[in-house]
């Protein structure tokens, strides 16, 4: 498939897929097309993974250029509030449902719909120079893809309101302290640090990792009791996998496991 606003790569040796938001001249602003192409790129990576031995294990989303992960919805692209909501939502909603973990690699501006895109990913790794915020209020809007909802669920309404009502750009330290990003890395060593984190994640037992994603996503919308039942079912089914046999054997033999996703 030909893309105009993203570049997509799949490494069949590691099982890692990369999607780069490729509109650096507008700081990777999320146009209708970009959002749709993120979804298409994820589907295509899943298909490529299915036809390789290792399978798709992790997807990394990052921004092209030196300045931004994504500076939000494309301001030139929506002239009415309804338009602003369109398919931008699709990528935000597709990523949590996507079976494989999706990692946001954030280096630079991560604003508005770009911040929401990062929040819809499963893990967020940021360089220490990155800045975050919901500037929509400065345009007389609110974050249109559920940013306030996400942040409220992750760290309470006061933090969500502070971000969305002030529109201020905040530092990576600030969002890290609030639990909105997983890790901050030194900008000078950012690529190597993320590569190393992602390579380790891609070595973990894929079925277990995918079950953990489903479990965490389920927990947000279910009671603790139902969530525990769900995890118990997943646990029992993982007990019957080759990967569990391999993990147990590797432990007994004091060696690294080699998981195959079966
Ligand atoms: N939509 C469309 N274009 C955008 C954009 C967006 N959200 N954010 C940045 N751009 C464009 C700028 O218009 C500029 O284009 P130009 O070179 O043709 O003039 C280019 O990206 C570079 O941005 P610039 O403002 O010159 O960079 P900067 O480093 O001075 O400032 C920001 C960076 C992110 C602070 C500033 O661009 C900004 O405030 N952007 C809007 C963020 C926003 O409100 N997002 C939420 C939208 S609802």
Could you say which small molecules are bound to this protein? coenzyme A
Tally of DSSP β-strands: 10
What's the arrangement of strands in the largest beta sheet? Answer: 1-2-3-5-7-10
* CATH fold description of the largest domain: 2-enoyl-CoA Hydratase, Chain A, domain 1
| Overall form | globular
By CATH, the architecture of the largest domain is named Alpha-Beta Complex
Give a verbal description of the structure.
The chain has 2 domains: 6-202, 2-enoyl-CoA Hydratase, Chain A, domain 1; 206-252, Orthogonal Bundle (Lyase 2-enoyl-coa Hydratase, Chain  A, domain 2), CATH 1.10.12. Strand 1 and strand 2 (16-21) form a beta hairpin. With 262 residues, the chain is α/β, with parallel strands linked by helices. 47% of the residues lie in helices and 16% in strands. It is built from 11 helices and 10 strands. The longest helix is centred in the N-terminal third of the chain and has 19 residues, at 32-50. The structure holds coenzyme A (COA). Residues 26-27, 29, 71-76, 109, 111-112, 135-136, 139 line the site of coenzyme A.
């Amino acid at each position: 498939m030909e893309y105009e606003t993203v570049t997509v790569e799949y490494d069949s040796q590691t099982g890692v897929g990369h999607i780069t938001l490729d509109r650096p001249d507008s700081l990777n602003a999320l146009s209708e097309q970009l959002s749709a192409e993120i979804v298409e790129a994820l589907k295509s990576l899943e298909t490529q993974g299915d036809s390789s031995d290792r399978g798709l294990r992790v997807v990394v989303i990052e921004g092209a250029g030196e300045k931004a992960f994504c500076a939000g919805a494309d301001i030139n692209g929506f002239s009415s509030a309804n338009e602003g909501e369109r398919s931008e939502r699709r990528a935000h909603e597709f990523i949590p449902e996507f079976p494989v973990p999706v990692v946001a690699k954030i280096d630079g501006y991560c604003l508005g719909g770009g911040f929401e895109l990062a929040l819809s990913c499963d893990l967020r790794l940021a360089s220490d120079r990155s800045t975050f915020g919901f500037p929509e209020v400065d345009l007389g809007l609110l974050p249109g893809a559920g940013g306030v909802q996400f942040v409220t669920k992750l760290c309470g309404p006061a933090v969500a309101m502070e971000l969305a009502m002030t529109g201020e750009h905040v530092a990576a330290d600030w969002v890290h302290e609030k639990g909105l990003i997983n890790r901050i890395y030194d900008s000078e060593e950012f690529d190597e640090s993320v590569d190393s984190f992602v390579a380790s994640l891609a070595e973990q037992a894929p079925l277990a990792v995918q079950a953990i994603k489903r479990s965490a996503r389920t927990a947000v919308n279910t009671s603790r009791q139902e969530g525990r039942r769900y995890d118990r079912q997943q646990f029992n089914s993982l007990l019957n996998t080759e990967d569990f046999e391999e993990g147990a054997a590797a432990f007994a033999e004091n060696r690294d496991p080699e998981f195959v996703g079966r």
